[in-house]
């Protein structure tokens, strides 16, 4: 068993550690009949290297600006490539941009695109493709949940909020292969931010001819290690090696077959029968399998948590919110429910982010949310008295359909009964419906998850500013908003981190959310598989993957 450590390298042009957004069914079988051989010269159908993966469910969208979830961005990360790409060591490396210059004030990047960077249809990747894609990401009409990632760009927030225009954005195609970006403030981790799929280019000519270019394999164009060969929606996808990719010689696989099986037990059975090369471990088998050969445990920057809706009773009261949070024993959940080696969360920002003084953010800011049933009961009494409740209004806990989510929800339900004397109703809905309801503030108390989009603690903390598309709690606090604004513009790193420490403490004091566990990545691999890279912050990489006979 291998344990991969999170390391944060903070440099003038790219801090690093980890990367994120949101941690999230019939399997098809590969046939050679009628398929074109896009592998290395001399390969035949029988000796192709085909990696069999499972994506769980249908991608939400392969539109880089829209598919803001792991089930979209994990596969998309292998079809597309941005200016930078996370390397095997988890740090940003030159990708479509072969080099860049940074102005003396730290605000303007000039990226020089590779002459041999092409789209899968043979078109050259040009600076205008980035202008087109980034403008679209920030265009309020696109409605991208990932648009906030572009607020680092000069004019980005104003444009996305409807108060500015595309002409005011700090992005420019200087010439066909030169792309210039001006930031609102110096941002040391910007090279990590733009490795995120939200910043992938879009072939402007193709998109203008067909605005739905990303919806079907026949119209999809890629610029990354693989091309989209076929896509049977809700069933399977097949990727083939992209011979137009500038670094195609590095890519060892001929094909990647993605199943869509939304059940870990079925996935594991398919792995055991040889239908899949990779699997997660079913929670009920974790104790039995966790120490087996072939199991790989890797850190992942992210949090499994619950959101309170502060616009619905009784969670308008902070003491009642804190009572519910302190009534939950996170350690019991990871020990007896999930059982996959996760760390119980006693605050919000996961470990692995190294401060300017060399300390880990989590160690520096300490434990902020700890199981304490006695204090929980006292807070509940005080909160009910403040609201004039003789009896607490009915509470419904909502989660998206999944056996894993169900198990945690049932554990919380028991904890609220045992520790607070409260009967909570559970409800589950299909994931897309659940997410729409959560965004619309239709839930009272609902499960959630966050995977870091880039390697800085502010990425999680900024989610809870007023009107953030990621907030989904109805909570608003002017002091918190100011702390995050300062953390995103302060050039003195020590001061910037102090703002983030204070913001996290305020989040724990107000408790619009409460934590369950930090994420990790636990997978089993067939002996024939090597080279799959899973970044602590970022998405799965198959560029270096290989499969032996």
Textual characterization of the structure:
It comes from Oceanobacillus picturae. Belongs to the bacterial solute-binding protein 5 family. This protein has two domains: 50-267 and 526-547, D-Maltodextrin-Binding Protein, domain 2; 298-521, Dipeptide-binding Protein, domain 3. Helices cover 27% and strands 20% of the residues. The protein has helices spanning 70-79, 127-138, 156-160, 190-193, 204-209, 264-272, 286-289, 318-326, 330-338, 361-365, 373-387, 403-420, 431-439, 458-461, 478-489, 493-510; strands at residues 2-4, 9-10, 15-16, 50-54, 84-86, 92-94, 97-102, 108-113, 171-175, 178-182, 226-232, 236-241, 255-259, 278-279, 295-308, 395-400, 424-429, 445-451, 513-525, 529-530, 546-547. Strands 1, 14, 15, 16, 17, 18 and 19 form a seven-stranded mixed β-sheet that branches.
Rg from Cα: 23 Å
Total individual domains? 2
Number of helices: 16
Estimated share of beta-strand residues = 15-25%
Biggest pleated-sheet summary: 7 strands, mixed
- Count of individual beta strands: 21
Query: Any idea what the CATH architecture of the largest domain is?
Result: 3-Layer(aba) Sandwich
Mean pLDDT: 90
The assigned structural class equals alpha+beta
CATH class of the largest domain: Alpha Beta
Helix proportion: 25-40%
Note poorly predicted spans.
1-45
Shape: globular
What is the CATH topology assignment of the largest domain?
Answer: D-Maltodextrin-Binding Protein, domain 2
- The separation of the N and C termini measures 23 Å
User: Which homologous superfamily in CATH is the superfamily of the largest domain?
Assistant: Periplasmic binding protein-like II
């Amino acid at each position: 068993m291998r344990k991969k450590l999170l390391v944060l390298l903070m440099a003038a042009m790219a801090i690093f550690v980890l990367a994120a957004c949101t941690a999230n069914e019939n399997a098809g079988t590969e046939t050679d009949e009628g398929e074109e051989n896009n592998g290395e010269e001399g390969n035949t159908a029988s000796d192709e290297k085909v990696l069999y993966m499972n994506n769980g469910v249908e991608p939400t969208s392969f539109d880089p600006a829209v598919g803001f979830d792991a089930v979209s961005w994990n596969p998309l990360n292998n079809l597309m490539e941005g200016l930078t790409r996370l390397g095997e060591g988890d740090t940003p490396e030159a990708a479509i941009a072969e080099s860049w210059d940074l102005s003396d004030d730290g605000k303007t990047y000039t990226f020089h695109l590779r002459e041999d960077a092409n789209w899968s249809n043979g078109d050259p990747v040009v600076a205008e493709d980035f202008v087109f894609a980034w403008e679209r990401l920030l265009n309020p009409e696109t409605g991208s949940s990932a648009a906030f990632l572009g607020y680092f760009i000069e004019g980005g927030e104003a444009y996305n909020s409807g108060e500015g225009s595309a002409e005011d954005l700090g992005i420019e195609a200087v010439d066909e292969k030169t792309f210039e970006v001006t930031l609102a403030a110096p941002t040391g981790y910007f090279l990590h931010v733009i490795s995120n799929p939200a910043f992938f280019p879009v072939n402007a000519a193709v998109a203008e001819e067909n605005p739905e270019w990303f919806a079907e394999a026949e119209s999809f164009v890629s610029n990354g290690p693989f091309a989209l060969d076929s896509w049977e929606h809700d069933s399977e996808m097949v990727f083939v090696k992209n011979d137009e990719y500038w670094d195609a010689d590095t890519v060892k696989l001929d094909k990647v077959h993605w199943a869509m099986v939304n059940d870990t037990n079925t996935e594991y059975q398919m792995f055991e029968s040889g239908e899949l090369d990779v699997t997660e471990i079913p929670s009920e088998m974790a104790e039995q399998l966790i120490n087996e050969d072939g199991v790989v445990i890797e850190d992942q920057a992210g949090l499994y948590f619950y959101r309170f809706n502060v616009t619905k009773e009784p969670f308008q009261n902070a003491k009642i919110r804190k009572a519910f949070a302190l009534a939950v024993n996170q350690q019991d959940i990871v020990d007896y429910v999930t059982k996959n080696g996760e760390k119980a969360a006693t605050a919000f920002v996961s470990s692995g982010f190294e401060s300017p003084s060399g300390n880990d953010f989590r160690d520096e800011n300490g434990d902020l949310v700890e199981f304490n049933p006695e204090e929980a009961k006292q807070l509940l009494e005080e909160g009910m008295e403040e609201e004039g409740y003789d009896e607490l209004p009915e509470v419904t806990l909502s989660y998206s359909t999944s056996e894993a989510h169900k198990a945690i929800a049932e554990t919380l339900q028991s904890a609220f009964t045992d520790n607070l004397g409260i009967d909570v109703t559970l409800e589950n809905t299909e994931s897309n419906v659940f997410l729409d309801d959560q965004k619309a503030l239709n839930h009272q108390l609902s499960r959630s998850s966050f995977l870091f989009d880039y390697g800085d603690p502010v990425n999680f903390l900024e989610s809870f500013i007023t009107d953030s598309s990621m907030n989904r709690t109805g909570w608003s606090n002017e002091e918190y908003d100011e702390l995050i604004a300062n953390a995103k513009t302060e050039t003195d790193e020590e001061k910037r981190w102090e703002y983030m420490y204070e913001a996290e403490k305020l989040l724990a004091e107000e408790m619009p959310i409460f934590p369950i566990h930090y994420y990790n990545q636990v997978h089993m691999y067939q002996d024939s598989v090597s080279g799959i890279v899973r970044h602590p912050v970022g998405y799965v990489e198959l560029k270096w993957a290989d499969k032996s006979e």
